[in-house]
Every structure is written in structure tokens, then in C-alpha cells.
Structure to design on (852 residues):
């Protein structure tokens, strides 16, 4: 006779910068949890991520309709709020971890699903350790997320494929625009994209250039030291050869001394350093040295929020990773993260795998050098083989009156049970 | 017995900044002309716009397949090249106009279709006058185009609806992103959009805010003098009320003295004025005065090239205006431009009309004051009634391997017939 397992509640939180598909993971978690009603009671979501747990601001997702939860799949950004808040080490701030356990205990939370990057997987891992140490039964499962695609073990990170698609589509379109105008007007166009430490997103822009001469002509990676002379020579060569030059530049490019380009040079009238903007810096350099007419764009949040042009495979993987996290918990696994395992490139086949949280915590996966051409200005066939499957397919949100219909949840807070308040130093 | 009309060739040119749907107009012209083979011989297109005529660089569109021409409908930017080149007045540079007529005569061009804004309609009108004066039979028809939506008479301009949709979708998506992050990170987001003289594009961003508190919270129009104190007070109020503030700012905003904000302030390390970028200026102001964490985006060419998110109605109208231009010519009309006539807002109904070129030449339609709220920071219901129909419907391009498949034409040049070369001063 099977022993009846006690039904316990779950806690789900989003962490760090949001993406076009992180809510699809939330959708996967909640819809799957609802199928295990005999084992999982209420799924609570952290209001503003892990802060929601620390402040005991738990959103009761059982108050949301089936339709509303389903709509999370096509809604960008973080439906419950996210946060940039990293728990310190257990030694430095054990009180925070203990507070988490207190809140979990008060709400009979037996499952902790943490949807984030390397830092968050580290936190999930520490919570797993402490709960064991304290004898509080808690299953901790990580769900990967980061537009930067810099997590170890998992073949790719949900959120990245959609940014990659946005960047590739955008530079293809803007490249055609510049090509049209180059005879009498703009000759150089620069698109600045995200990726402070790694060039994954910038690399994805390269997919738009399928044939010689197609945009982008130049990609600037954080992995390759920026050398103005080489760059300018390449720009000049492109303009001579193709009539124009389209550039994708990572926000994180640095000079030979390792200094971010975005931190150099510009001052306002009062002498304050100007903040941000690699694209205008490059534009100014081109104008001063080559005197070409230029235009530049900074995509910023538009790129990672662009659910309207999300990659179908990205949406599917985000959902599957959330779903798998719940299934892992149901199978009694603990302190693992769901991952994407690539089976083949062409046709692209993938499956869900798992990895211990410790293996992904606090690590960064850099763009391999063999993904960048020898001259440092474009991507190789190896990069294309890896990147192309990730932008495949379209998964359009529903529209009404010309606008995408994204869901706003009720986000009803559960009644607090702890008398003690807890304040974090943001 | 009907008199057999002589078959003559046609010349089509794109002018000024390109759009996501100007090629749909080209598609309308060429496909329709191909239906009138008994009257229209070859459709030549100007390589790089009107320069193609002056330099006798005529693209022979009969060399393009039916499939390629059909694909123009979903291809952004200018497939034959455009140019920023305005013919001077007849008095100042009669030689240019005479050269046009010479080239037209050499290639037996009897129809001139000019696809552009107010300047281009002026040129088309002058060419019509001169051809009559010189006794050269030429039918001149204008086709409207401008993302700025600033042409007179026509209810709206093709190209605008798609930019409007891009801006509304983008600020809705980015607004959700900021809302997710505001608890611990970014509180203010600024999206800079096009519109140097008029606020039509910025106004379209307002459509995303359907309910109180939705993004954008603030719109900055070129029509309203920018007053830092009022602006900052509004930003502060939004952050207090909603936790964050999403802003759409026109590149053309000016201070009370009429000076462009983008021309003030920033200098590089050598004291050179920094070029462009209202969004970073506003961000810096907010950071200095309110100390909020901010992000900013500059959409630049991405917005007007964004065929992937074009408005269906915009594509249909662009095509219909090109088609109508040929039909007007077939009916013997001359020196007119095809226009959009609005029949009703809800349901939105429109039809094709016409106007003498003289009525649209060199004029600008400003955003009416009653489209802007009294406080100057948002749009009114009147604006919504006008704008909403223009972003309706989606018209996705075909995709392959995750990327939109845009056509690149062969652009075969017709053999030159004139011995005399002509050089323009760009």
C-alpha cells in the first residue's frame, strides 16, 4: 500500500533581468503544478522575486484563472515582479536564509522553484543546503533564465533565443534601410546590443548576414579588445566595397586596457561623465576620423522584452524547463536545475536534462573563440551552427486593435502569518 | 473606332527616408502597370531615387520575376535605392529639370511616378509644369510616403502606421519590463522616437496606454516646449504612484527658446559637441535631479524599417496608393497625388482619393493641439480615434530559418542612350 505523501505548497520566484519568455517558464511551473494537486497545494509567487519571500509578500497564484495563467506564455517581462537582489553568503548573512526558511515554514512551502541566472542558482543551492541543515524538508529546483546565455551546462538559456532573433531581424531590416539611403545620406549604422560580459547577443546579429555583403558587416564583441585603427579601417573598407557599413556592437566592448568604451570620453557641460552608450561613442569616432554620415540605435530593454518577435523554440523551451522543474520535484529530485540538451543541429533536436545547482552556480559561459572569425569582426560557421536553431520559428502573441494582448495578473497577496518584519538592504 | 494610344514607358522613383512599406507602393505600381501592357511598356525605377533619372541609371523592372515583384510587398526599405536629394527651384537649376526630360525622352518615358513626401510632390509638380512648357507629353503622379505623417490632404501617409505600431508595441513591452524591475532596479525608461518637426510618431506611443498607469506615462512632443521642472515633477509623481515611469520622447523636442534638446550640453573630452540623442540627455537630467536608476533606448532606423511588425492597414494602403497612381495615369489624370480618404473611425473605413500636387507640395501637417492633453504630456481621445485604426492588423513577412525573407532585386540597369553625362552636387 502506497504511503500517502503530505500535500505541500510551492514557491516560485523570478530573478534578475527579465526576458520575453520568463513568464512562459512561470506558465510551465503553474500549469504543471496544477496537474499535481494531490501533492502540490498552492503555488505562491514572490512579489518582486526573492524579496517577496523575505518580506512575506506571497502572491497566491490560485486566484488566477486558467486563462490568465495560460496567457503568461505569451506575455513578456516578469508577471510577479523580479529583482536584482543577491543573497549574500551563508556566513555573511545567515539571517536572510533563515528568514526564507521561516516564511516557507509559515506557509508550508515544500517546493522552491527559482527562475534565474548563475547567482540565483547559487542562492537556490544555499537554500537547499540550509534547509537540510535545519531539518526543514524543502525541494529546491532551479530554472535557467538569462538573455546573456552565459549559464554553464545547459546548451542555451531561455530568453536568449528571442533576443537573438530580435537582434538578427532588426539589423537585417535596418541594414536594408541604410543600403537604400547610402548614395546620398547615411553610410554607417550602429546597433548597440546587450551583453556586458559576453558576446552571445552580438554574435546572434551575425546570423542576418547569410551572403557576402549582407548586414551586419562588422560585429564588435566584448571578448575582442577594441582597437580603433583596425575598426576604422574595416568600416572604410566596407563603405568602399558595399556603399555602406552596418555594425552590431555589444555594450560591453572594451579597449586594450580592459576599460569599457561606454565609460570613456563624453562629458556634459558641467564636466560630469556621460553614462552609457557605446553606439554614440563609435558614431562620433567614425564621424571624426572618416567623416561618414551615421545613424545609431540602442535597443536596450526593447530587445529583451520583444515578445512580439520571440523565437518559437525559445518559448517552447522556457515552458518545458518550468514544467520539468515541477516534474523533477515530483520525482523527489533536489538541488538540481532543468537544462536544455542539444541532440543535433540540423535538424535541430533537443531534450530536457538536469544538472546539480552547484555546477552552474556563480559561473559564466563565455563565447568560444572559435565562434569569432580570426579578424575578430564576425562569426564563424561554428557559431552559426550553434545559434541558428535557437532563433527558429515564430510564436506571435494575440493582438487586439493592433496591439499585443499581454496579461496583467491580479497578484493577490496571501495573508501574512509572521509577526516579525524583515527589512533587506537594497 | 477607338484611336490606338501609343504605348509608352514609365519611371518610378523612391524619395527621402525609406519606410517599412514604400516597397509595397512600388509593388502596387509595377503589378498594376503590368496589367496595362497595351499602354505601359517597361517600368523603369530610378537607381537611388531621382538621381537614377539624372544619371540615367534606370533599373529595368521587367527583368524581375513576378515572384520578386510580389515579394516587394513584404520587404522594407527602398528596393531600388532612395535619396535625400531635392531638386532646386526651376529658376535656380533649370538644367536639372531639363536633364530629367532629356532622359525621359531618350527612354520614351511617358509616365513619372514619384513616391515621397512634400518635397518630392513639389518636384513632381515642377516636372509636370516643365514638360508641358517644353511640349513633352508626360503624366506626373505622386504617391505619398513619409513615416512623419506630415503630408497635407491625405488622411495619413503610408509608412506612418507601421512606425506607429512599432512604437506602441515597443513601449508596451519595455514598460512591462521596467515594471518588473522597478522594486530594486530601473525606475525610469525613455524611448526616443523619430519626428524632428512633428509629434505624430511620439503620439502613437500613447496608444499603448489603454488604462490608467499603463506605459507610456509621459510623452514628449516637439510641439510642446520642454520645461525641465514640469517634466521632472511629472516623472517623480509617476514613480511615486506607479513605482516606475515609462517615457516616449520625440527626437525633436525643444526648450522654450526653440533650441533642440539634442543639440545642447554634451561635449566629448576634446570639447566637441556630441551629436544626437535626446534620450541620454533626459536620462542624465533625471539621474542628476532625481537620482532614479534609468534605462534608455533609441529606436532610430529600427522603427521605420520594422517590416516584421508592420500594420496590415499600412501595407494595404501603401499598395493601394501605388496601384491608384497607375490607374490615375491610365485615366489621363496628371499632376495629382493619390491620397487616403477616411470614411469612418469605427469601424475604420477608407478609400482612395486624389489631390493636385500643388496642394501638398512643400507643406507640413502638424499634430493638432487637441490631440495633446492640456498638460502637454499625453494624447487625447481625439488622437486615439485618429491613430488607432492606422496600427490595426498584422501582416507578417514569410520566415525561413527564423529570419524574415526579404527580396533583393537584380536591379539590372537599362543601357544608357545619352552621350552627355550629368553630375549633381550632392
Amino acid at each position: 500500500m502506497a504511503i500517502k505523501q503530505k500535500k505541500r505548497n510551492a514557491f516560485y520566484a523570478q530573478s534578475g533581468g527579465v526576458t520575453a519568455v520568463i513568464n512562459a517558464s512561470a506558465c510551465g511551473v503553474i500549469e504543471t503544478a496544477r496537474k499535481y494537486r494531490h501533492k502540490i497545494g498552492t503555488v505562491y509567487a514572490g512579489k518582486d522575486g526573492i524579496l517577496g519571500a523575505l518580506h512575506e509578500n506571497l502572491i497566491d497564484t490560485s486566484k488566477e484563472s486558467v486563462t490568465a495563467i495560460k496567457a503568461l506564455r505569451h506575455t513578456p517581462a516578469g508577471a510577479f515582479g523580479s529583482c536584482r537582489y543577491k543573497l549574500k553568503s551563508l556566513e555573511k548573512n545567515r539571517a536572510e536564509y533563515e528568514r526564507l526558511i521561516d516564511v516557507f515554514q509559515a506557509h508550508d512551502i515544500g517546493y522552491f522553484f527559482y527562475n534565474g541566472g548563475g547567482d540565483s542558482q547559487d542562492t537556490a543551492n544555499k537554500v537547499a543546503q540550509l534547509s537540510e541543515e535545519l531539518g526543514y524538508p524543502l525541494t529546491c529546483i532551479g530554472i535557467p533564465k538569462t538573455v546573456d546565455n552565459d549559464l554553464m551546462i545547459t546548451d542555451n538559456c531561455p530568453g536568449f533565443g528571442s533576443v537573438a532573433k530580435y537582434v538578427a531581424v532588426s539589423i537585417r531590416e535596418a541594414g536594408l534601410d541604410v543600403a537604400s539611403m547610402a548614395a546620398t545620406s547615411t553610410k554607417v549604422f550602429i546597433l548597440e546590443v546587450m551583453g556586458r560580459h559576453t558576446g552571445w547577443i552580438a554574435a546572434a546579429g551575425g546570423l542576418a548576414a547569410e551572403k557576402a555583403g549582407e548586414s551586419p558587416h562588422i560585429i564588435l564583441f566584448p571578448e575582442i579588445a577594441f582597437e580603433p585603427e583596425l575598426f576604422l579601417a574595416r568600416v572604410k573598407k566596407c563603405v568602399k566595397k558595399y556603399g555602406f557599413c552596418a555594425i552590431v556592437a555589444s555594450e560591453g566592448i572594451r579597449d586594450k586596457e580592459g576599460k569599457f568604451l561606454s565609460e570613456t570620453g563624453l562629458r556634459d557641460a558641467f564636466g560630469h561623465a556621460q553614462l552609457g552608450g557605446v553606439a554614440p561613442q563609435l558614431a562620433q569616432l567614425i564621424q571624426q576620423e572618416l567623416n561618414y554620415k551615421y545613424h545609431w540605435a540602442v535597443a536596450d530593454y526593447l530587445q529583451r522584452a520583444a515578445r512580439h518577435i520571440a523565437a518559437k523554440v525559445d518559448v517552447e523551451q522556457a515552458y518545458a524547463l518550468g514544467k520539468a522543474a515541477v516534474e523533477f520535484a515530483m520525482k523527489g529530485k533536489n538541488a538540481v536545475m532543468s537544462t536544455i540538451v542539444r541532440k543535433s543541429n540540423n535538424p535541430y533536436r533537443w531534450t530536457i536534462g538536469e544538472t546539480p545547482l552547484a555546477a552552474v552556480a556563480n559561473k559564466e559561459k563565455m563565447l568560444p573563440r572559435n565562434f569569432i572569425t580570426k579578424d575578430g569582426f564576425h562569426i564563424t560557421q561554428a557559431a552559426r551552427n550553434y545559434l541558428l536553431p535557437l532563433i527558429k520559428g515564430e510564436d506571435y502573441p494575440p493582438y487586439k486593435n493592433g496591439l499585443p494582448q499581454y496579461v496583467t495578473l491580479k497578484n493577490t497577496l496571501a495573508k501574512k502569518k509572521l509577526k516579525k518584519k524583515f527589512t533587506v538592504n537594497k
